[in-house]
Fold this protein.
Amino acid sequence: MGGPSWAMLTLNSQLNLDGPFSLLRAARLKHRAFSPFRNAIPSVMLALACMVATPASAEVRSVTANPAEDCSTQMNIGWHADLGETSCSVVYTQKSDAAWAQAMRVAGKSKRSEVFDGIDSKTSDSKDWKEEAKFLDYGVTLTGLKPDTDYMYKVAVDDTVSTDPARHFKTAGASEFSFLWLSDVHVYTPLPRRTDRLNTVFDAAIKIEPSVDFVYSTGDVVAWGGSYSFWKKLFEQPFSSKYMFADVIGNHDWMKRRDGGNNEFFAVAHNNPTNGYAGQEGVSYWFIYGDVLFMAFNTEAMRDGPEAEAEAKAWAAGVIEKQKGKYKRIFIAQHYNWFDGRNGKSAWYDHWKDFCDEHHVTLAMSGHNHVYQRTHSLWDDQVVSDGLGTVYMVAPSSDGERGVEAGPLTMNAEKLAFTYSSHVYSTDGQVRTVGCVLVDVGPKSIKTRLVYMDEQNQAQIADEHTITTLPTDASRSALPSKRPATKTEKPAPEVTSGTMMQ
């Protein structure tokens, strides 16, 4: 970072400072790898940090809280540090502990990463350049957390704890929880208005639902996954410091500017649970928040063919069986859309409907299409009563660019309950949809609300809908018998309302 900094506090028992700074002498944080210490940190130390200018010898970046397997008592924290910073850790405490008197520390594990280095990219002023990104990829799993509790945390380098504003997450455990669902931000540093628009609709949604517990994304958060500077920009956005962030890999998150892509871009950018199947560790993953089992899938991998898709489903079925008794409902998420909001044509719905029927998935989430969509409750290609089937939803784009327009439903009109896009076009012919979805999960119901910015940049709420839900293992005697498989959908007519942007 260079130059003096007011943002670092040295915690070192060897300090021999005169006057009030002698209060720092006994504050060395003693820690064991992946085990919290119980020593209190004097509260005056954090106050003194505002008065002390210390040289900033290290840079810590891309700090984020990601889910651990059991979010009621665990949380993953990830960050990146300079190659020489081999002793980083997380200091954390409950948010109510304003003086950090009960703060604890967990040492991080790291590995060297060069996966982004040398990749063709763009600077913020749109000049061609190659990414310069060699760093230590750090992660910790915090354990023994108190359920339904707000926490704050900071990253320490050696004995130096950042006094930048604390970052936050909330553990699961309440009977009700809410999350903000965004998609298709395509962070691209030459076009900063993309993140500006995201923050505008995000802030509007939080005003509507201040009790949001975490943020969920169905992918394409960056324009090119191989451009580390784009990931860094993403994690500089305010939401990253305030909430746990669960993300799904999209095609843009996987790709480079040129010549294919790599799952490792996504895996290194996050500290997700490494409970996916072989080759998908940290990319396809699951976690439990409240009474919901969340499962995230990599559609780039499943595009390889039926065998790859079957492998993903076999893994998911195994998780569902092994974790039985720890959850009541199942939410699945992937990037590619279930339907095409321009006309209603089936897309990945056909790939997953049998799986969702078999395992009684409550909610199926996706993105990619840039058109908001919500179906009725579906089972066996039929509309059924709430709780008996799966609701399939597609989040709108959040960047105000690259969108397509929702059109008349010439297919699957009986399945799709609501679609939305902006109808305002940019000068280059793209629809300017800026939206997100609020999801409120209660013990026996789910409420979803579309939040979008209108032509006057005012926040609007649409498609507020509550469905009754059943536990996955509940009796569904009211379901009709399965029908023989038939293909009833007609080919899509030529669509002129927009151009799908991949």
